[in-house]
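hi!! sorry for the late reply, been swamped w classes. u asked for the two structures so here they r. pasted raw, havent cleaned anything up. first the sequence of the first protein and right below it the tokens
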Amino acid sequence: MDKVQVFVRIRGLNSNEKEKGETKIVKCTEDKVVVGEKTHNLVGFGPEVNNEQFYKVSLQNIVLQGITKGVNVGLVCVGESKSGKSTTLGVANSPAGPGLVALTAATIFDHVTKHSHFVGVSYLNIYNDKFADLLNPADKELKIKTQASLGVYVEELSEISVKSTADLMRLFDQGNKVRKILELEMNTPTTKSHTIFTVNCEYRTAEQTLIRSQIQFYNVAGLNHAQEQDVSKSLKSLETSISQSVSNEQVTGFSGSKLTQLLKSVMNKTAFLMILGHVSPTSKSLDTTGTTLDLLTKCQAIKLEPKPNSLDTKQLIEDLRKRVAVARNAITSQTSGTIAKEHIAELDNSLASLSAAKRLQWDVRERASALAEEQRRETLADQGVLEWITQTAGQIKNNTSSVLLLQKEKETLVAEYKKQREIVDSLKSALQSSISSHTSFAEQPNQSESVLQESLSKIHKLRDQLKSGNEKLRDLKKGVKEAQDKLKLERTQSASTELETSGNFALTLMMKKDEIAHLKRDNKQFLDEEQERLQTESVQETAEIKLSATQGNTLTLEQIVKLQEQHVQQNVQLSHLALHVQCLQAENEKLLESMEALNSAHRVRHKAQFFSDVTPFFSMH
């Protein structure tokens, strides 16, 4: 009897965490994951292990077994938002390299191309227990159906056939772009939705034996949203299903949500299953990290009995036709005026199963795939995003590389700025301490003149070092600001390059909203730093006055008035900065309102243009 495979991936510190000087509290050894002082008996992998290295020691083996034996395979990714789940599965142009979806696709095609085969994919989004088709986001109702011979499936969910790894990844990446649009339309972050990417793999051996397997990748919503109404139902249902599976009870938790109804196909103990937890390395995520690791520890006890899919489409259709014939004969042979309800029900069920089984035939699926491809192009054109969605990763590679280089340059400058800030703070503290000590010495009678002069010399030296340090700090701050501006410009140009082709105002709005969020954060940081700078100058001025007093100097009325004026000017300066920031943010909000109005007009124009441009494409099919 097999056990579920359970692993943990610990992401590295992100740029924001590095800027704040946060440290890692989650570490892993060969078979332990340590969080602070608590140890979990789990196999963990740190950020130094890339996707390909992880795939080779984990998922690759069960994928190979699944496609050679005809057993279903499930990978369930859990963890908090921003912990690396999407990066593990695969993000276009990611520095982490190809994700597990691409690596699995390569394994599949390396095997099935030796045989007559069919490979089809579907991509489903679940938010608040509602479905969305990420390959063809048309306005259609998707429903869960269950057939005794076919199991659980989503009716009307598009399946598109693929001929290569590149073909499969094209659809996966495009589905991820559609998910970004759904985030905008639903006004909710993608971290609150679940996704299921399914690869249906079928081929016939030399002996004409049909081998069928289904490989599914589940990206579960962030566990940090577990208490929120639109997410809690499915996450609680998932936890209940896992608890019942561990205790070998009859699993009733699957019916608790649409996510777990579909998870049943890989968590019913007949499939190869891997549960992959993702955790953030810092203390701010301590609670969710603990929840994730406790859930994974529980999952380790789930026992599996993988079984091959015995369904042969041809044989199934033949058997269902016989059942339909028997049910019809039973109805027509009734001598009385009343037809038994069980015969009618049997006929209805058999006809529904026969219809579903026919849709499993390769030629039928290829035709349905071609139709779905046309429908999705029309839907995407109607939404004004066709060209943006279908743009390949290679077309934006150069822009992405430039952004990454500028990001690296900015991170280097930020690190230097933080280091210099620590030096300046240390000098500032030393100067204030020296001035206080000198003041105390000067107030005591009969102090040695040489000691006082030595103390003053030390103060002047520290003051010169602080002045030099502050100048260097200002230069670094200026460099960071310039790097931020260049990065912002490059990101805008990169996004514009993508969006100009499609004229997609909806995505431009999303980009603008993100830009405003970053701007607010940067402005707050700028105001905080300016306030700190003015306070520092005030402290230094006070220290200078104290030092002057120890030397027998006193302030004149004119000097006191001047100091008061400087204090007032500092407050006015801060008020002007705050007001300027508010005006900039107000201008951005007005710009967003005008762009919203343009978006509505754009969609109508783009749909008309699509039909004039692609009518020849449709007529060819």
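now the second protein. again sequence first, tokens right under
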Amino acid sequence: MAADVDKRNLEQEKKISPQNGQQIPGSRSWIYKRMWTLLVVCAVPLFAFGIKYYQDAQLLKRHEESVRTLGAEGFFLFSSLDTNHDLYLSPEEFKPIAEKLTGITTPVDFEEEVIHDPNGETLTLEAKMQPLLLDSMTKSKDGFLGVSHSSLSGLRSWKSPAVPSLSFSASQFRVFLPPKNKIEVGDTWWVIPSELNIFTGYLPNNRYHPPTPRGKEVLIHSLLSMFHPRPFIKSRFAPQGTVACIRASNDFYYDIVFRIHAEFQLNDIPDFPFWFTPGQFTGNIVLSKDASHVRHFHLYVPNNKSLNVDMEWLYGASESSNMEVDIGYLPQLELRSTGPSTPSIIVDEQGNIIDSRDGSSEPIKFVFEEIHWTSEINREEAARRLEVTFYPFKKVSYLPFSEAFERAEAEKKLVHSILLWGALDDQSCSGRTLRETVLESSPVLALLNQSFISSWSLVKELENLQQNPALSEKARLHLEKYSFPVEMMVALPNGTIVHHINANFFLDQTAMKPEEEGATFSFSGGFEDPSTSTYISFLKEGLEKAEEYLAQ
């Protein structure tokens, strides 16, 4: 028995002890795993460093090749289009160029028209208006000399809203709800897309009656018809249409800010057309996410500028007839809800009517809960996002006159100042061509952001500023250089104008004739057409002249 025990012990020692130079298989496997783990841990950062080094080397190589191929100016243009700086143009980066070249904008899917629920909630809107101040028009200064009475007949007779009060189904306001891919606070989208661009030009002037509205256009047309019976919900000039932005949101409600570019035809046959174009309509709507309830609605023409309406009228029946242009001030044009939308009937849990609203009974009394937003941006930021959607040139901030010079002094930059007859960032503008071409081109945007503080001002506002002791000298210097209709200037922070060019002269210099050799299309998506290159030269000349002034 002792021999058996000794034999078993010997066998166990053989199992746990290495013999003849061999290791136990389990031990060898554990060591290999530790070694591989260590190698992997060391190799990962080395591999990542190698990839980064290779990518940087390739990027540097592409950068050098690009500069050799395009030259410094050409590479500057390319870089302004290459938003992610990978030295490749993706389809998304090329999209604005394609739209400018083809004149075709990516289509927007319209929702089907909503069938209104007769038992749904109803919203009542009231229209208010103060007519245009005739003495704010330039032509009033000479007593409208040469302006026929028939031309202004529609303007003079429009003194009150066409429909002072009107009820709508709450579900009609579904058109303001965002599409499925635009549900975050701050998102913007086209409710009614613009159909005009630099290639299509503008719509005819010789028209009296608007086209039949379709789809989402129906509600906008109905709203504006409360002011005047002939609203054109798509203006003759770009950018036209309606844009919306989510200002605030919670689980049940949106607060949506919107902006509309539309106009009215005030005259009818036999008088020649008279176009009345407010700078913009804006406002907001607070509605439930299923559009069954509207808590608040407000639409108005902003009156915070000294001039806010553009007017154009024909002196003949054809498109080639002479046209007069003027601008004026409209104190008030607005729609406002009288209260939240309310149902016409109230039913119990079984669907039985327990109360109703009809013409012979008192209105149903409701108490509404207060809305608390879980996510929001301020109204100014929402308005800015709408503005940039309409006007890409506003990707550069344009500051008020006084603030621009203060910022330029603080940042040691020059002021890029535009002085004009009508507002640059709405439809009462005398600088349409400028803002739709060079000011929104990528190279100009890049240079303005890098070296300038930008500002635009109305002539009338600077005339008023001459009474301001702190700003009178800067205003005077600007007005001395101004020529109708638009003057672009480069100024020192102290207000000294070092360089300027008139818009008409600028456009004449950059106008392209088909017969000119080497003529190319002019558009603002980023290709350096004559307008863009000329404006960049103007800005660079301003920088050079400023150095001379500062050196004195």
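hope this helps!! also noticed smth abt the second:
The mean pLDDT is 81.
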